[in-house]
Amino acid sequence: MTIPVYRPDLTGNELLYAEDALRSGWISSIGQYIERFEQALASETECAHAIALANGTVALHLALHCMDIGPGDEVIVPTFTYIASVNTIAQTGAVPVFAESRASDWLMDPADIERRITPRTKAVMPVHLFGAICDPDINVIARRHGLRVIEDAAEALGSRRNGRHVGSDADITSFSFFGNKTVTTGEGGAVITRDPVLAERLRKVKGQGQSLTRRYWHDEMGFNYRMTNICAAIGTAQMERLPEILARKQAIADIYRSELSGNRFVFQELAPGVQSSNWLVSLLLPPGVDRDQTIARLLSSGIDSRPVFYCAHQMPVYRSDEHFPIAEDIAARGISLPSFPTLEDSQIRMISANLRSIVEEMMVTD
Question: What parts of the chain have a pLDDT lower than 50?
Fold first, then answer.
């Protein structure tokens, strides 16, 4: 059997709560587990308002829409990111403006943001990739220029800087609960905000723009972005075990770093005070090593892996002639390894040994 890149750990109360939701008859977007899941998210992030949604992509789109970002506006976003960050900007009619990454943490470079700000810039979207946290200077720059901040924390639930949960300083922060995320609801997402007025609008617009006090009265355009009670039931059970899951993922990351140290592999660096959720353990292969061949050879040994994200500016739909050397290098050499919570220590060491052997052989051949 192949060791997958990810497999959700559903060994808690997930089945019990899902069955309870089914028996209650409340299987759509109303039910006790919606509220329980939102309360758990609010508690974990120490944010006043958490709003459960259908997936992480609509969470980003809802955030942009509810901050009135649209045609004629520009939003600065890293080119090295999952494509949903960029797609949701374009879906509003706004223009994604790509920024360079840093070689250390692979995240948006604050030094590259300021020169990309124009009179049309309305927001900045930092993306916290693989569990690392973007530089807080991004928020400082945004505030100085009067820009909104939408943080994409799809991969960073549980990540903290000096004890504060990621997303604490943003106008809105989004999360994903897809099947391969640290906490999963199958498909699901959420936004958090400290702004009660913004929270009220987010809640209204996610439900077709229906008034929160008058049934079937729609006083603005909205969307059907609601999470189901069944998904929330699974998420509620997952949140009960979040500390346990995070601890195991930290242990997995520690073993990988120990086993693969000194082999010219480059790991994502964490800034002082940052505690990563270690969503996926990812690294850069040595220059010149064929990533596709590495992935194929790992798979032939029963080990699944995947490339990191391609740069958005290299995609046909967003292609640009601008050169982003750091982001392009990360995108070309990055690989993600099996990182699920039930992965055994012996499996991590076997994966590491296989990767070392493959890469060393390739480097000798070159």
Answer: none
